[in-house]
Amino acid sequence: MDTAEALAVATQLDEDHPPETNGRMSVCRRCGAHTDGPAGLHHTPDERELARSTSWLTAEVQRRRLERLRALHHS
Fold this sequence. Notes:
- By secondary structure, the chain is mainly alpha-helical.
- The chain is 49% helix and 0% strand.
């Protein structure tokens, strides 16, 4: 059963990027979260993956901020 937190993280992952699967496994190659199937239309992290998925999202936000700062610095 999905918790509200798992659904919120799944939504954040979907907003961040479309799932990237290899077509055989229900796992996103980009963030490592489970997907709704091998085609990977949506992320569906389970409760055990929440900490890792939340950390991944936080790191992505930080990485993008640093990229923007570097781009501004080199402009």
